[in-house]
Amino acid sequence: MGEVVPGEWRICTAPTLPADFAAQWRGRGPSTNIVVDDLPDRDTARVLAGRGVEPLLLPITDSCTNDADDSAGRGEGCPGAVSVIQRLATEALGAPSGSREQLSWFRWITGHQVGFILWQLIAELLADPEHTEPNTQETMADYVNAYSGMLLYAGSCPRDVYHRLIRPGMRAWHEAFSGSWAPDYKLVRKLMRNRHGSRLDAPLRDAVELQQEVHDHVARRLVPDGTSLLQAAHYQTTEQRPLLYMLYDSFFSTLRAPVQRSQVLAQLMRRLAKIILDVRANPLPRPDMAGLSPEVGAPISALGAGLVGVCVRAAVAAGSPASGLAVVAEESRVKAVGPAGRG
Ligand code: HEM
Hints:
Elements: H1 21-25, H2 41-48, E1 56-58, H3 79-89, H4 100-126, H5 136-154, H6 159-173, H7 189-192, H8 202-222, H9 229-233, H10 241-251, E2 254-256, H11 261-281, H12 294-305, H13 307-317, H14 322-337
Parallel strand pairs: 1-2
Bound molecules: protoporphyrin IX containing FE (HEM).
């Protein structure tokens, strides 16, 4: 591997990093780039196997490149990353497999990655001042509901696995690791906190409120006293935002580079399909209703039971060829109720 070039993206395996990598990297200033080496074609399948966590490629800026601009399609600045995404798209899809720890890790990372894409899609609509898209608020409500579904999905691990594996993993990344460091979240924070200037119609307002309830429900289920790593570390997130964003992204296997909207949607579809296969094979635990009022508990319960439908709605809203996703949903349903199924 040659000299590390700022602004260049390549996917890399650790052993190929040059001995003087750290020296080359120092003094480059703040950067959101991750430098890696090209994977030979034959290794993609072996390394990623289509069943585990996959790297996610998202735009550096606040929105994806329009598909009409083919510079991102050529992958300027990120040839390695784009070609890995393209190669991945040809890999067979499979439900995540492995131990309960592996499944929990897959859900934690992939659920978050889908959340990032949904935030990007919401931001795309918020950024359209004319609201030229028809039914903008309804579409946003579909995305927000899908995000709530991802909160349940990501947070569905057994509590002991969260405390043995996931939380220590985040703490090892940074002692104060926090969801508030998610780079894409800043685009939608006002909306998600229900502080958006313009009036929200009922479906969107309900979706935003449900999302807040679901976050708090997941937080309480996994950490009964609700203390986050940020709070426990008494850390003030006042500066170095770009560095915190980079730390956050790297934990969730997320790279930033020029990328077309269609490539982002392809990554969304692939993940949603895997999630559908997963929840059909391994249904989410029923939400613990203890301490929840029926007004809060019933919609959370319905969301968990209807996760597949929520995923399909979001894909349709994004303009994806959702028929493929519906087929995955349908086929997995058949498998789940068939003689060999586990459902
Ligand atoms: C299921 C996965 C989760 C996701 C996607 C998620 C996402 C987020 C996001 C985006 C924020 C920023 C909110 C804002 O600034 O408006 C946040 C903040 C927060 N989350 Fe979560 N969260 C998750 C799980 C948890 C869990 C398990 C806890 C349990 C302690 C938790 C506790 C908190 C707290 C206390 C905050 C306030 C900021 C902080 O102290 O870090 N969250 N979360």
